[in-house]
Structures are given as structure tokens and as C-alpha cells.
Design brief:
InterPro entries: Met_Sox_Rdtase_MsrA_dom, Met_Sox_Rdtase_MsrA_sf. This protein has helices at 2-11, 16-24, 28-32, 34-37, 64-71, 94-97, 119-130, 156-171, 199-202, 207-223; strands at residues 55-60, 77-85, 105-112, 138-139, 142-143, 150-153, 182-185, 189-191. It has one domain (2-233): Peptide methionine sulphoxide reductase MsrA (Peptide Methionine Sulfoxide Reductase, Chain A). The radius of gyration is 16 Å and the shape is globular. Helices cover 37% and strands 16% of the residues. The strands form two sheets. A six-stranded mixed β-sheet has the order 7-6-1-3-2-8, covered by helices on one side. Strands 4-5 form a two-stranded antiparallel sheet.
């Protein structure tokens, strides 16, 4: 029941253009992400200082199903959780967040080993294949502030890297339109309901996943072969 309900919720937000793309067998995410149709993005000129132990990055930009699926396939990433950031704890549940008035964005919490992948590299993946940073309060077929593009920084170093990289991409005219990604302090991350965790992996044949999320992972493998890892090498959060 949950799976059917979720599919209906997602597809009711498809625009007429997205519907035409689906019928034509073309993914909205394929057209949206920079790396699929443009030259590869540059490496960040500014990156985080070396750190000991696992680090955390929290990012938002569209449905968290796709974001989780992408970052679960990045080497050095140890755990990815789908959840909500930007709003209050008492509104951090799917039905409330879907109203678009809670301040939350569908987000992912990424626990990673900085000796294997840097914060700057995660941002390069994010901007290249995980989201379209030029879409305001939407991502492909999903519309609303809960789908906005946000980097939730956990410390001054992450803020420095994020703002510098956005400025670098802007100066390089890496995208045809201005980047609207927000860079805001992380005030809290609230893990989403269990049926959202690993959704793309558990439902690979659902049309929404096939057309919107699977191509992102394919682009990751194509553009970042040195960073790509298969499913078996990652551990993800499941709630019980």
C-alpha cells in the first residue's frame, strides 16, 4: 500500500512536459543534470581541510530517493540516510513536508571517509549528476520548496568550500542559467520514514525510479569511474 501510495504522490506532480518525456522514454533527470549534456565540471579549487575520522555532509536537491541512490554509489561513502532538513522536528514527516510549507527540504545525510573522498568531491558529484542547481523550488517533475537545492553546512569549512565552488562554477559559466542552490547552516537532520530508505534500490522497476533516478547513477558511473562503487560495497540506514 505504501509503495502504491508513494508512486501516486510522485506522479501527480509531473508536468505535461515530464509526461511527454516519459512517453518518449526520456528521463527528466537526464535532461536536467549538467554532466549529461555539458562538459565535465571542474574540480573544486577550494576543498576542506584534512580531517580525522568520519565526516558528515547534508545535501538537498529533489526527491531524496535519487540523492540517496547516487551517493550510495560513491567510494568513501559509508552510510546514506534519506530525511528532512530546514524545518522543525515536529513537522519532519512525509505528509507534512509534502505540503511545502514546513521549511524542510527532502535531504540526505552522507557519512563519509575524508581519506577516500573529500567534501569538495562530494559537491562535484552533487552538481554534476545528482541535481540541477538552476531549478528553483523544484527538481524535474517534483515541484515545491521541499525539493529545493540546498547545501546544509555543518561547519565553517564546509561553508567555505560550498560558497567557493558555487562561485567557481558561476565564473566558469558551467550552467546555462544561474545557480540557485542555497548554502545555509545545518540546524537538524531528521531521518525519514523506513519505507523511504533505499527506495530506489528496493523498487528499481518503478517508472519514477527508472526515468528519474536510475539515469543519475548511470551518469555517476560514466563520469566518475574512479569514485563509482556497486551496491554491495555500501551500508545504508534502514529503520525498523
Amino acid at each position: 500500500m505504501e509503495r502504491s501510495f508513494m508512486s501516486i504522490r510522485r506522479f501527480t506532480w509531473f508536468s505535461p512536459l515530464a509526461g511527454l518525456l516519459l512517453m518518449a522514454g526520456v528521463s527528466a533527470c537526464t535532461l536536467a543534470t549538467a554532466g549529461s549534456d555539458h562538459a565535465p565540471l571542474p574540480d573544486p579549487a577550494v576543498d576542506a581541510a584534512p580531517a580525522q575520522g568520519d565526516q558528515v555532509a547534508v545535501l538537498a536537491g529533489g526527491c531524496f530517493w535519487g540523492l540517496q541512490s547516487v551517493f550510495e554509489h560513491v567510494k568513501g561513502v559509508k552510510k546514506v540516510s534519506a530525511g528532512y532538513s530546514g524545518g522543525a522536528a515536529n513537522t519532519a514527516e512525509y505528509d507534512r513536508v509534502s505540503d511545502g510549507d514546513t521549511g524542510h527540504a527532502e535531504s540526505v545525510k552522507i557519512v563519509y571517509d575524508p581519506s577516500k573522498v573529500s567534501y569538495g568531491q562530494l559537491l562535484k558529484v552533487y552538481f554534476s549528476v545528482a541535481t540541477d542547481p538552476t531549478q528553483l523550488n523544484r527538481q524535474g517533475p517534483d515541484v515545491g520548496t521541499q525539493y529545493r537545492s540546498v547545501i546544509f553546512y555543518g561547519n565553517d569549512d564546509q561553508k567555505r568550500v560550498a560558497t567557493a565552488y558555487i562561485a567557481q562554477l558561476g565564473a566558469a559559466h558551467a550552467f546555462a542559467a544561474p545557480i540557485v542552490t542555497q548554502v545555509v547552516p545545518l540546524k537538524g537532520f531528521y531521518v525519514a520514514e523506513s519505507y523511504h530508505q533505499d527506495y530506489a534500490r528496493r523498487h528499481p522497476d518503478e517508472p519514477y525510479i527508472v526515468f528519474n533516478d536510475a539515469p543519475k547513477v548511470a551518469h555517476l558511473k560514466q563520469q566518475f569511474p574512479a569514485l563509482y562503487q556497486p551496491d554491495r560495497d555500501v551500508v545504508s540506514v534502514m529503520l525498523h
